[in-house]
Design brief:
single chain; 109 residues; four-stranded mixed sheet; 8 strands
Length: 109
């Protein structure tokens, strides 16, 4: 079964932050890839409490999967990921050339 994680994205300084809810995932099993302007997240969810005779069970086994077309303005060598309390946070720094900047105006007078 495939779950689609809830995700918030926002800009902060010269980077894009992406915050995804992936409860039940293990940090070392989360797979994040950035190829040709597309960011892909995959996080398997393992079964828990195997061998029990459940009276009611809502927890399901499967994986989280989500992809984003984000273009090529981010430096893939500087993408960072952190995972804590079921929340995955990705920091995607922009290339220096695409960051907004103020242009100074010189006067010849």
């Amino acid at each position: 079964r495939t779950f689609v994680p809830a995700v918030d994205t926002f800009e902060q300084g010269g980077e894009l932050l992406l915050v995804a809810d992936v409860p039940g995932a293990k940090a070392d099993a989360i797979d994040i890839r950035y190829e040709e302007g597309e960011l892909k997240i995959h996080a398997p969810i393992a079964a828990r409490n195997r061998g029990r005779n459940f009276l009611h069970q809502e927890y399901d086994v499967g994986h989280y999967a989500r992809s984003f077309r984000i273009g090529k303005m981010f430096d893939p060598s500087r993408i960072e990921a952190a995972y804590a309390d079921g929340v995955l946070t990705l920091r995607l720094p922009k290339f220096e050339a695409v960051k907004p900047r103020k242009i100074a105006v010189r006067s010849n007078a």
